[in-house]
């Protein structure tokens, strides 16, 4: 019997996967995060390679290499704990095949070609990493612990070759390397205020201190932010300015002289940045970039290495708007690339003559609003007798990272999606729009209706060429079974697969992703009134069937058009006419408090967890959670009635001291506790994911290793709520004609009958969601994010049914219900993985939406990566599969039709001849 059940389950799993749907109905954006300017550069993956990759350490603590040809991620690695680190560093070296990172007290070397970890070392003492540089093939590390420490580490093993400690108490800022000397730049506090720049010289071979001197900077430098730049090759410099940006001071590291350059006061300078070459054999030239609110310009300086002097060579003219500069080298030549609105220019460092100029139409095609370049990196390759090849990777204010190849945008990466905070599905309003137009004509006079109809037909004719162009591709897609078509799908389809996933980001952007066109960006707009300087509240999103998206936060209310992202209007909500009392709840002072909407000060009920417990999360039942059946039909045709309460909220609380995790199921209207459970030996530092739907709840946690359980484990708990433990019984409320959630306060609260089971799973679950279909007829699927394997799994709910028989085989009636024997282990079947072979990294939230087809639910997961797909928990019972041969069917019908044309006259003649012969 067990073997038969196992074989049956295997057959169902095999049927659940369709090879032709993989990578066709789903989409994936493998993202890195916004690149940091000081940690982004072009670099060859090995010394023998002539081609370069783009390496970056993003603000999401992701190290990655990007192919500049197509923008694809070659490899990426996540630095654990680096998001909370005060500083994260990435460095490259000449003639080596590794890149090095430093963050959160950890130094690591990664193979530049494939991202393989070469070595990783932890600092012996607590401290913050300050500087990281390559010296030949070794690494020089600067960190602040009990004292300032400089180490030289072997580049191939990470072993410490020498160590220098400075116990002066000065704050280390950065390191620079020139020749055989390592320079440590520190900030020395003066008693009267201000900071002097201190430079300590260390012999790179022995690690011995060879010199030290102070630079007079206390009148300008008040904090580390006033230091503009440290580094550069072949001659290292340190530059600083005052808070008002009135003067620029530069010192050639190793000398005691400071060059001073006044800054023009015609415009208020907002920021200053320096760009110097990184290569050892390059010319000693650098560029200073000045940025104001509405303009930018630059100055190029030359260093006389023999005389140790700095002179201004020439100016680059002032241009309106924001701009960015990048430096690149080819042999000894130094090139400065300028990216501004409408133009990209390349200038050689020797003179102000423009080497190459390109006119830029747009950074990213289809991007609306202002897209200002924030920072850029470049690679200029001179070609004998021809124009140079220029590649510029520029980060835009919209959060897009684009590469410009010889004046044309080669690719763009929507890195702003890594800042997503909330998302919704928005339907395309094709049918509703036509209905509104017809309603206008119906209520207008005859002349007005006629004029309106003519205008509508003219607008339809404007779309005729586009419609005719798309028809052959749609017909071919229908025959071949291909759902995805080229370009953006801005029209709704009859199955409800074509929707937009609209994302709001923490940097004030609203981004729409077309779920029907491989996850392409449909539009990307700025929410008005966003400001980086003021606190920005993440807005709430609401989509309507009329084709608009409402965006609300404490700062305002905006309405956008779904199809184009165009802002339609801005205003405030009108007070709604209340037809009843709305009870809300919130977490305040470690308690969950219920109150009447708009009267937060008047508390209706309060829930307090056990003493010593802290509330971790609140998980409500979804507002739109349709239920097709109020009961579960048993194998003997009896019914177990489900406990269906739309006001359920699951409270998760933990006690760090006792390692206990507790869950409480509340009625959010009355505040009554309907169910509670506690688990001991829980690792409360790990995430506890939970979900509530229909009449069940599910949560997972991580068990600590100890004497009782030597192995660290992961548990998944499923609980179902019934009105009674007896079939055909509605419980204590079965005879009631009316029911109120507040009535139990004065009587029987009608607790549900709860059945639960626990499973041990192979890895941790960080987030949960549940599939959502139109009528709720389709079996639900639990969708879980697995951070250890960067995966997304869909677990059929029937595998988690807590009524599975324990310690025995299921009876015939239980088999008829689909119940299988309970096993404490729940291995994730390979067919459950929704992402297939993709690595979906950093998922923080999952949302689902129903399609028009009852069998299908749309899934959208976001965090660091963005992933979307369609799932059919009960298989595609209401639509033909892709394996259905439409061509064969049409050919069969055609053959039958042709056969009838020829056979019909022959049959008629035969009948006539038969009658004549009678």
UniProtKB/TrEMBL annotation:
Membrane spanning stretches: 887-908
Location (main, coarse): endoplasmic reticulum
Topology of the protein relative to the lipid bilayer: Single-pass type I membrane protein
Signal peptide segment: 1-16
Keyword Transmembrane helix: yes
GO annotation terms (biological process): protein folding in endoplasmic reticulum
Domain ER membrane protein complex subunit 1 C-terminal: 693-916
One Gene Ontology cellular component: EMC complex
Coiled coil residues, start to end: none
Domain of life: Eukaryota
Name of one Pfam family that matches: Beta-prop_EMC1_N
Keyword annotations: Endoplasmic reticulum, Glycoprotein, Membrane, Signal, Transmembrane, Transmembrane helix
Subcellular location: Endoplasmic reticulum membrane
UniProt-listed InterPro entries: Beta-prop_EMC1_1st (IPR058545), EMC1 (IPR026895), EMC1_C (IPR011678), PQQ_b-propeller_rpt (IPR018391), Quinoprotein_ADH-like_sf (IPR011047), WD40/YVTN_repeat-like_dom_sf (IPR015943)
All copies of domain EMC1 first beta-propeller, residue ranges: 16-415
Quaternary organization: Component of the ER membrane protein complex (EMC).
Family statement: Belongs to the EMC1 family.
Name the record gives this protein: ER membrane protein complex subunit 1
Native organism: Venturia effusa
Lineage, top ranks: Eukaryota, Fungi, Dikarya, Ascomycota, Pezizomycotina
């Amino acid at each position: 019997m067990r073997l038969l059940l196992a074989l049956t389950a295997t057959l169902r799993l095999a049927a659940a996967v369709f090879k032709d749907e993989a990578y066709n109905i789903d989409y994936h954006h493998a993202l890195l995060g916004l690149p940091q300017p000081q940690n982004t550069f072009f670099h060859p993956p090995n010394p023998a390679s002539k081609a370069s990759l783009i390496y970056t350490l993003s603000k999401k603590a992701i190290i990655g290499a990007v192919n500049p040809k197509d923008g694809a991620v070659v490899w990426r690695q996540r630095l654990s704990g680096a998001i909370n680190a005060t500083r994260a560093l990435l460095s490259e070296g000449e003639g080596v095949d590794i890149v090095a990172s430093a963050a959160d007290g950890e130094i690591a070397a990664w193979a530049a070609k494939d991202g393989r970890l070469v070595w990783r070392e932890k600092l012996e003492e607590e401290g913050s990493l300050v500087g990281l540089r390559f010296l030949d093939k070794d690494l020089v590390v600067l960190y602040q612990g009990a004292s300032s420490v400089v180490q030289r580490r072997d580049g191939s093993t990470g072993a410490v070759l020498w160590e220098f400690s400075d116990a002066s108490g000065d704050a280390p800022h950065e390191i620079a390397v020139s020749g055989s000397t390592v320079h440590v730049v520190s900030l020395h506090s003066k008693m009267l205020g201000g900071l002097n720049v201190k430079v300590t010289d260390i012999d790179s071979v022995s690690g011995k201190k060879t010199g030290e001197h102070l630079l007079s900077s206390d009148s300008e430098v008040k904090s580390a932010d006033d230091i503009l730049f440290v580094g550069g090759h072949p001659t290292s410099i340190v530059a600083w300015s005052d808070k008002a940006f009135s003067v620029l001071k530069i010192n050639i590291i190793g000398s005691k002289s400071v060059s001073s350059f006044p800054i023009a006061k015609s415009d208020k300078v907002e920021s200053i940045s320096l760009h110097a070459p990184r290569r050892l054999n390059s010319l000693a030239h650098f560029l200073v970039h000045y940025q104001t609110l509405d303009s930018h310009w630059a100055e190029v300086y030359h260093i006389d290495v023999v005389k140790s002097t700095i002179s201004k060579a020439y100016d680059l003219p002032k241009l309106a708007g924001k701009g960015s500069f990048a430096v690149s080298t080819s042999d000894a030549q130094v090139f400065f690339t300028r990216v501004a609105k409408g133009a990209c220019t390349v200038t050689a460092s020797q003179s102000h003559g423009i080497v190459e100029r390109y006119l830029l139409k747009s950074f990213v095609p289809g991007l609306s609003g202002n897209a200002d370049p924030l920072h850029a990196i470049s690679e200029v390759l001179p070609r004998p007798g021809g124009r140079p090849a220029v590649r510029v990777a520029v980060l835009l204010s919209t959060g897009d990272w684009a590469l410009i190849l010889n004046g044309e945008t080669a690719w763009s990466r929507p890195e702003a999606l890594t800042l997503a905070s909330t998302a919704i599905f928005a339907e395309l309003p094709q049918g509703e729009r036509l209905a509104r137009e017809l309603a206008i004509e119906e209520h207008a006079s005859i002349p007005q209706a006629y004029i309106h109809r003519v205008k509508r037909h003219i607008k339809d004719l404007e779309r005729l060429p586009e419609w005719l162009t798309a028809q052959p591709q749609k017909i071919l897609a229908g025959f071949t079974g291909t759902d995805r078509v080229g370009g953006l799908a801005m029209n709704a389809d009859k199955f409800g697969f074509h929707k937009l996933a609209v994302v709001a980001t923490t940097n004030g952007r609203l981004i729409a992703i077309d779920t029907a066109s491989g996850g392409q960006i449909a539009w990307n707009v700025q929410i008005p009134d966003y400001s980086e300087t003021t606190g920005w509240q993440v807005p709430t999103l609401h989509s309507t069937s009329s084709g608009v998206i409402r965006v609300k936060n404490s700062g305002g209310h905006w309405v956008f058009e779904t199809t184009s992202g165009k802002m339609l209007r801005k205003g405030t909500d009108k007070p709604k006419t209340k037809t009843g009392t709305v009870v809300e709840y919130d977490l305040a002072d470690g308690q969950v408090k219920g109150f009447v909407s708009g009267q937060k000060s008047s508390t209706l009920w309060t829930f307090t967890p056990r003493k010593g417990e802290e509330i971790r999360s609140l998980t409500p039942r979804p507002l739109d959670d349709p239920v097709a059946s109020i009961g579960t039909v048993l194998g003997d045709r009896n019914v177990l009635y489900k406990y269906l309460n739309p006001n359920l909220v699951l409270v998760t609380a933990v006690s760090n001291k006792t390692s206990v995790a507790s869950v409480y199921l509340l009625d959010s209207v009355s505040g009554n506790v309907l169910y509670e459970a506690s688990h001991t030996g829980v690792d409360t530092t790990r995430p506890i994911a939970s979900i509530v739907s229909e009449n069940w709840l599910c949560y997972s946690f991580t068990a600590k290793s100890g004497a009782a359980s030597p192995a660290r484990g992961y548990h998944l708990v499923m609980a179902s709520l019934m009105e009674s433990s007896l079939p055909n019984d509605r419980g204590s409320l079965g005879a009631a004609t009316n029911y109120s959630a507040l009535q139990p306060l004065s009587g029987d609260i009608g607790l549900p009958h709860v059945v639960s089971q626990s499973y041990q799973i192979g890895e941790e679950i960080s987030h949960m969601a549940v599939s959502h279909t139109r009528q709720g007829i389709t079996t639900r699927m639990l969708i879980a994010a697995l951070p250890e394997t960067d995966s997304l799994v869909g677990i059929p709910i029937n595998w988690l049914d807590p009524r599975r028989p324990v310690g025995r085989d299921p009876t015939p009636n239980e088999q008829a219900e689909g119940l299988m024997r309970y096993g404490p282990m729940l291995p994730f079947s390979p067919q459950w993985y929704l992402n297939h072979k993709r690595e979906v990294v950093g998922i923080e939230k999952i949302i689902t939406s129903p399609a028009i087809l009852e069998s299908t639910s749309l899934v959208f997961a976001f965090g660091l990566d963005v992933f979307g797909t369609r799932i059919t928990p009960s298989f595609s019972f209401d639509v033909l599969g892709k394996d259905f041969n439409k061509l064969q069917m049409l050919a069969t019908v055609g053959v039958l039709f042709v056969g009838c044309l020829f056979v019909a006259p022959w049959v008629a003649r035969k009948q006539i001849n038969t009658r004549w012969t009678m």
